[in-house]
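Re: zinc ion structure - here you go.
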Amino acid sequence: MGQCSYHPNVETAIRCVECDRFVCPKEWVETPVGYKCPEHGRQTLSARRTVKPRQFAFALAASALVGIGGSFLIASIGFRFWLISLVLGLATGEAARRASGGHRTGSIAALAGFSVIAGSALTGAGYLVMALSAAAAVISVMQNRW
Ligand SMILES: [Zn+2]
Ligand SMILES: [Zn+2]
């Protein structure tokens, strides 16, 4: 047991795994490797916000599957309605974000947007459908971030 580095009157047994500082429940940050002080915990959180290559690859596969695959599916039905393109865009954005591990970043949004644009272009869906679904994909990924 020792005194919390941030609250002199608080006894605690938990130390930051990075700097060995005593931390109490008021400020410790739980991370996969153990408890950390606010300073080192923050670094872990910001590291989580950057997309790793593997996560990007997953997002690429998911958005291509839903965005391009979905466009072909819509084209094969022969029922082309702007609302479906909107839903496809949202679904592509959601799939890309989930596959990446939940990232709401510009790169994932661009990936989802590009996939539906490619899907629209490959199926000759037209510019309106292309723009709508791309906008929906980007909004789906970036919502709550703006
Ligand atoms: Zn620390
Ligand atoms: Zn404390």
